[in-house]
Design brief:
This protein is α/β, with parallel strands linked by helices and about 250 residues long. The chain has two domains: about 100 residues, Elongation Factor Tu (Ef-tu), domain 3; about 130 residues, Rossmann fold, CATH 3.40.50.80. About 20% of the residues lie in helices and about 35% in strands. The chain has five helices and eleven strands; from the N terminus they run E-E-E-E-E-H-E-E-H-E-H-E-H-E-H-E. The chain has a six-stranded antiparallel beta sheet. Strand 7, helix 2 and strand 8 form a beta-alpha-beta unit. The chain is globular. The protein starts with a strand and ends in an 8-residue tail after the last strand. The relative contact order is 0.17. InterPro entries: Cbr1-like_FAD-bd_dom (IPR008333), FAD-bd_FR_type (IPR017927), Flavoprot_Pyr_Nucl_cyt_Rdtase (IPR001709), FNR_nucleotide-bd (IPR039261), MRET (IPR050415), OxRdtase_FAD/NAD-bd (IPR001433), Riboflavin_synthase-like_b-brl (IPR017938).
């Protein structure tokens, strides 16, 4: 059941950026599967019994009892510095989930999809992209990914060198502070022009998923409405200071 805490062991990890890491966790009591866009609670327990828990979006479809999360280190945080810098293969924690049923994409759907991610808000959107590839879906996908600078880009190789199964997926990287040399767009926050140019037209009737910090989510959602998108087809998820879904 989603509310049940399950022990899990770290079976793999990879750095995504200087401050972010993907953890591959194997649920030792089985995993019920999850939908793209859902998240899990993670709980750590110290030797003295003190516990701390945080929520993290699932970064990829489940493979058996194995799930992935991508964690961004939060300065001064209780949980993320350990997960990013210290947790080693064989170490254990607990997971609870999957959680959330509204901010999800159905791989059986053929509707066009527009994804807008700000910073670590790209994580659940990446799960949707990967689920689309795994399902060999032909649904039209557009991803607008807002990131401060090139060194903060998550899933760098996967987004820049997409697989043959990614036909129909377009990715636009919007840098807000520092852009690579030769990038035609000057660093700036995502605005109406970016949403209009690199998203999907309202007349296509796309499902729109927007995830990131509150300011980013509000700006993109307002832009989508201003461009004529159906508010009922705009789904948002905001991230709190801990980096987890809110």
């Amino acid at each position: 059941m989603p509310g049940h805490w399950r022990p899990a062991v770290l079976v793999g990890a990879r750095a995504e950026s200087p401050t972010a890491r993907t953890l591959v966790l194997k649920a030792e009591e089985g995993w019920p599967g999850h939908r793209p866009g859902q998240h899990v609670d993670v709980r750590l327990t110290a030797e003295d019994g003190y516990t701390a828990q945080r929520s993290y979006s699932l970064a990829a479809p489940a493979v058996g009892d194995t799930v992935e999360i991508t964690v961004q280190r939060v300065p001064g945080g209780e949980v993320s510095p350990y997960l990013v810098d210290e947790m080693a293969e064989g170490d254990r924690l607990e997971v609870r989930g999957p959680l959330g049923g509204w901010f999800v994409w159905d791989p059986a759907s053929t509707d066009p999809v527009a994804l807008f991610g700000g910073g670590a808000g790209v994580v659940p959107l990446m799960c949707m992209v990967r689920a689309r590839r795994a399902a060999r879906s032909r649904a039209l996908f557009r991803l607008v990914y807002s990131v401060r600078a090139p060194d903060g880009l998550l899933y760098r190789a996967e987004l820049r060198e997409r697989a043959p199964g990614d036909a129909g997926l377009d990715v636009f990287l919007a840098y807000t502070r520092t852009a690579p040399e030769g990038t035609p767009r000057a660093p700036a926050r995502v605005g109406v022009a970016d949403v209009n140019t690199h998203g999907l037209p309202a007349e296509f009737g796309p499902m729109c998923f927007v995830c990131g910090p509150t300011g980013f989510v509000e700006a993109v959602a307002d832009a989508l409405v201003a461009l004529g998108h159906d508010p009922g087809r705009i789904r948002t998820e905001r991230f709190g200071a801990s980096g987890g879904p809110r």
